[in-house]
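Hi V.,

You were right to ask for the full record rather than a summary. Here it is.
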Amino acid sequence: MRGIYTFLFWLLLIGSSPILLPLSILKGYGVKGRLGILPKGVKAGGIWLHGASIGEIGILASLAKRIRGNAPQLPLSISATTLTGLQRAKSLFPAATPFLLPLDLPLTIARAFNSLRPRALIIAESELWPNLIYEAALRNCPLFLVNARISPSSRYRLLKSLFPYLFGSFTKIFCRGEGDKRGFKALGVKEGRLRVAGDLKFDPLLSSPAPLVLRKSLGVQPEEKVLVAGCTRKGEEEKVLRAFSQVNSPQTVLILAPRHLERLEEVERILKKMGIGYIRRGQASQRTQERVILLDTYGELSSIYSICYAAFIGGSLEPFGGHNPLEPAWYGVPVLFGPHTESNPEGAKALLRRGGGVRVRDEDELAQTWRGLLDDPEERERKGKAAQRVVEESMGKAEQIAQEILQELDYP
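Predicted structure:
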């Protein structure tokens, strides 16, 4: 089956090459990296960490920081699937010489392994590339899955049936929660290779943005309160904006942050159709009367939560499974989310249990909750502190996992 997968991958690659190759050259999509030719500066004989995009790279950078603290002489390399992930890796951990993941073909993957000769490969969340995992197993390279999660979809069972070696190749799988552990056991992973380690997104990089500088760059006045709608998905922006229109407070600003920046023009059309004054973040320092700031930058949302009065987490009003609700919680911000939190159930449950989160069923409840928090600063403060405690009580996971991986490698 791996041969069929590789053949189909080749067909797809050849069929799309008339479009992808010119784009790769013109826009710098990293042709060499995709072919397994790694950049200068990559050091062999260390640990290779891989994640898809911004969120996974943040997890890995946090883990890499702890590994470096325990084993400063051990070389580290970080790869990303997307360009945005690569940019994030370069900003968070430039010393690891980040690069784009090669195409999941035997030749390109083998070339990368030959260059890196890794002592271990650490993969974040659900980056289950069959040839990548097969090559690691073939070379007896210890393989770890961190922040591992299983969605309710059946695609994992399909992967198991198509690639029997896939899940059994991992030395250890660090699951986010008990539900994820049960999911991996159902896929045939042995109990001894599974450990519930918690959500590494509870374990931030502990960066401390300067709120006053950030507010000034956004054109936000000292008396204005900032509401944030982060990682919104298709069908949610209209609902969020209608909810915000019900917030009768002229000193309230909404920062709207679509999950995918390629949708910015679509969101702008929605704002114009609804007759809502807005300004892009890139020009926000010139803001005057606009009550909506449209975030058009990568990797800045986490910092913006630090100046937030209350945060809504997108992907949850529409059935996308919801995004990570813990980033704003770190800054002591009440966290609101819709009914769909299947992708991050543990974080949502913890926030609800401790009183730091609020589940809203629709735009009207979102508006009502926003108004309630704006009208009652003491309640907002209470919920914010409760949200922050959820994060504080769950920190240190990355340090524990780093030490456990190094012990598995018998390092030093």
